[in-house]
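Attaching the record inline, Q. Sequence:
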Amino acid sequence: MKTDGIYPKLIWTREASNRFESRLQTAVLNSDCTCRLKAVLKTMESLIVANIRQRPLRSLISAAGVALGVALVMLFTGLSRGMSNDLAKRSSNVQAEIMFTKKGSMGLTSSSLNLDVEYAKLLKEIEGVQEALPVALYISQGKRGFGFMQIEGVDWNAYSKLNNIQLTSGREPKEHNEVVIDATKARDDSLQVGSELELFGGKKYKVVGVYAPESRARVKMTLGAMQEIMESPSKCTYILVKCKDGVTQEIVARRIEEKLPGNKIQFTKEVFTGIEKQIPALNTFLRVLVGLGAIVSALVVMLAMYTTITERTREIGILKALGASRGFIISEIVKEALLISTIGLVSGFVISYISSIFIHSAYGLLFDFSLGWTITAALIGLLGGSVGALYPAVRAANLDPVNALAYD
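Structure, as predicted:
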């Protein structure tokens, strides 16, 4: 480090160093401690930004660490919320109150056709039941292997009447190689009546209709077509039960249990819940992810600031010799860390938004960023950065001025 008289030049930038020396010399000539300290304080404000500019690579890496933590939290929580809300929205259009099925026939990512469709006739004979509709459900991997896609086999006329959905174009499926899709899938995948859709590992199906509003699976075919492809004749996954007006679902469910014991009876409003409720460990995973994001931000900033403090040892010694307090030194270092964290925070939000658009267009996964998780991600970035800067800041404030000035 070069010196000019008794004042070493600061290492941040040449311009900042010249301003710093000029103000120090002016303060010494005046022999006024207050003036000297004010000069130092004013100079340090510009040195916070100057130091970041002088070390762009290190500042960029530090901001990237904060951005990574923020982006992880935003993307994972946004994906969970988006898929959950999408599932809840589609399921809300199911008008039947009860789902009748066998145990183990349906899960979040798998299903089977193990229920005899003859149960539908028996259910219609129970007092209080207006309609009983068999549904065959198949769950496969989603677009390009990400997420999952549901396909339902139904009696279209009965299903559309039960759930108040209408064809906006085309007609209902009749042949085993025909399907109808909802308007959302038609828009997202650029499909229309007459388009071909590959299902079940490459088997081609013709889109013969588009319907709205969306209701459960976005792709529907005839019940017979699903039974044929799954090699399960006269079988279904579950039966939707619609109660008559004036009869509560609890009473009908009790009657079904009495007439057809040993089966699984659930209320649709409880079955078609959000993903968070279907995967109990998901909330725990999200909390762990938030903690990891905070730790990553804190460690990256701490490492960067610790290295910076080591390089500024002599400059910190000058400040302490001129009367700078421990609190002032700590605050300046924390301010620099907060500036880096803010840059990382903004970058993290931008990365999350752009990534969500790309992932949705490429894989069809939905994202929904909530205000609550956005605030949480912001706190992770800012608090993680400031906490990470505390140890280097306290270490710098506790430096002995004499030893600091002698540091080479």
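The two ends are 8 Å apart (CA to CA). The first helix runs from residue 14 to 30.

More tomorrow.
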